[in-house]
Design goal:
heterodimer; A: Cytochrome-c3 Hydrogenase, chain B; globular; B: alpha/beta; two-stranded parallel sheet; 21% helix
């Protein structure tokens, strides 16, 4: 009887306006009941041609566009681009500016991770943690508004330094926030991290081995979740990171398999704590002085190509710049963690439940504008 | 390990002529298009180098040629290098490196989409960012933006610099 029954795969469409695809991404899924047989991500809905725009604006004029590449961590996106141009020009950034950059960047890293964790929780059906974490993010937005006036797309870093100095009383406010925030992180642990329902949804789902992670060019927390101890801040230090004391958390398979969704999630939580540590050190050590190096109005970097990587919340963001000695780049390629992270989905989604695909996307922390650029 | 040492290793083990590029910030290794695949295979499998990560791959439209760049990383030895090659704009064909790194799949699809570079032996070479029926390759320097796409007109905004409300 059963051998006569014919089964066929049903093709269903998930997205582009699906609440749990984190932006406008579409998945074409061939399913066998609840189990995914084949998954083909269709990206490009947010392709705005930022790389083409770069060829027609000046070097300084491109900084606001980098905000739009990754709106959850614009500070870090600014930083990556500004650092690439500084390296090309050979500009020395003043020490105070470097400290301010680290402070702003790490605050933004925390706020980005909070959204990543909160959104992953919400995809699993837990609304409360998302609201709680977004409340913490609001405090960070207030702090970042204090230093640059914007709450989402900051345009704060400039080539050679930062645009404004820290306002009066800023470090006291940040210190106050950190004291409060450390308690909030503990609360979050009680609410989510050690929650058995959450562990059951995340542990042992879509494990990525270290070899696979490197083959697919995983970066940042996703790579470290698979147990590869690599962080650009530590392995190729830039700015003042070599003076700071912090740990690189990696996945340990504490409740499941190495490199599963839970490991990726847990690395982010631990990274938040390390960022708090970095912030405390910076606020104590920050020197007085200039915040902007002297940079000519019309920048014309010499002919050549440069590839610079920085550690943003979504892993190392690479800026490949090809200059032909004119006032705008001849070619600018932004290599982002979401793009290469996404390319693993067809392989990872095979033979898992549709509900688990949502967990995978949530744990990879994919941001659609960064994916499509 | 610097670029000269990497070049020596490549030449000693694969007998392929490669040379260092000049005039750039990052030292890079220039490889002939036909030798790209064997050189990449060696770079990944060599124990002294083990470039297991393809960090980035892109093309640059430079006059008559497309310059192609591969940025490789080795977490094991904390190394970084850039491989450079060039193909003519009239027949932009190069061997795909998908078999070496899986990350190359989407990176090559992207540069096919935006530059029109044909990757030989790529498993699934189709557009990734733009719609499948898009005409032309936007990141080429001689690209003209279309007058419209399907029913959407691509006319300039009526508000220009002289506009006064």
């Amino acid at each position: 009887m059963t051998s006569e029954l014919k089964t066929e795969h049903i093709t269903i469409n998930m997205g582009p306006q699906h609440p749990s695809t984190h932006g406008v991404i579409r998945f074409v899924i061939k399913t066998d009941g609840e189990i995914i047989h084949e998954c083909d991500p269709d990206v490009g809905y947010l392709h705005r041609g930022i790389e083409k725009i770069a060829e027609s604006v000046t070097w300084q004029g491109f900084v606001p566009f980098t905000d739009r590449v990754d709106y959850l961590a614009s500070m870090n996106a600014n930083w990556a681009y500004c650092m690439a141009v500084e390296e090309m020009l050979g500009t020395e950034v003043p020490e105070r500016a470097e400290y301010i950059r680290v402070i702003a960047g790490e605050l933004n890293r925390i706020s980005s991770h909070l959204v990543a964790i909160g959104a992953a929780d919400m995809d699993m059906g837990a609304i409360t943690p998302f609201v709680q974490l977004l409340r913490e993010r609001e405090y960070i937005n207030d702090l970042l508004e204090m230093i640059c006036g914007a709450r989402l797309t900051y345009n704060y870093y400039s080539i050679g330094g930062v645009n404004y100095d820290l306002p009066e009383g800023f470090s006291i406010k940040v210190m106050g926030f950190l004291d409060h925030f450390e308690v909030a992180v503990e609360q979050m642990h009680r609410l989510v991290t050690y929650n058995q329902i959450f562990i059951n949804r995340f542990a042992n789902v879509a494990a990525v081995s270290p070899e696979m992670a490197m083959d697919y060019n995983f970066v940042g927390p996703n790579l470290r979740g698979s147990g590869v101890k690599y962080d650009v801040r530590r392995n190729k230090p830039y700015s003042i990171y070599d003076k700071l004391d912090f740990e690189i958390p990696i996945g340990t398979a504490s409740v499941g398999t190495l490199g599963d969704c839970y490991d990726r999630y847990f690395v982010r939580v631990e990274e938040i704590r390390e960022s708090v540590k970095i912030l405390r050190q910076c606020l104590q050590q920050i020197p007085e002085g200039e915040i902007q190096a002297k940079v000519k109005n019309a920048i014309k970097p010499p002919v050549g190509h440069k590839y610079i990587r920085t550690e943003t919340p979504r892993g190392d963001t690479g800026y490949f710049i090809y200059s032909d000695g004119k006032t705008s780049p001849s070619r600018l390629k932004i290599r982002t963690g979401s793009f290469t992270g996404m390319s693993i989905i067809p392989e990872l989604a095979r033979n898992i439940f549709i509900a688990d695909l949502v967990a995978v996307i949530g744990s990879l922390d994919i941001v659609a504008p960064e994916l499509d650029r | 390990m610097n670029t000269t040492e990497i070049i020596d290793l490549i030449q000693k083990n694969t007998q392929i002529e490669v040379k260092a590029s000049e005039n750039s910030y990052d030292a890079s290794i220039i490889v002939e298009p036909k030798d790209v695949l064997p050189v990449m295979k060696f770079l990944k499998l060599s124990r002294d180098l083990s470039f297991k990560v393809l960090s980035s791959h892109t093309a640059v439209h430079d006059g008559e040629d497309f310059k192609l760049f591969w940025n490789l990383l080795s977490y094991e030895h904390n190394l970084e290098t850039t491989i450079e090659s060039s193909v003519p704009v009239v027949s932009p064909q190069i061997q795909s490196v998908c078999k070496v790194w899986k990350a190359a799949d989407w990176l090559e699809r992207e540069s096919y989409d935006l530059f029109g570079i044909q990757y030989i032996d790529h498993p699934d070479l189709r557009r990734i960012m733009l719609p499948e029926d898009w005409i032309g390759f936007p990141l080429r320097k001689d690209y003209q933006s279309p007058e419209g796409y399907q029913d959407i007109e691509n006319s300039r905004s009526e508000i220009d610099k002289r506009f006064k409300p």
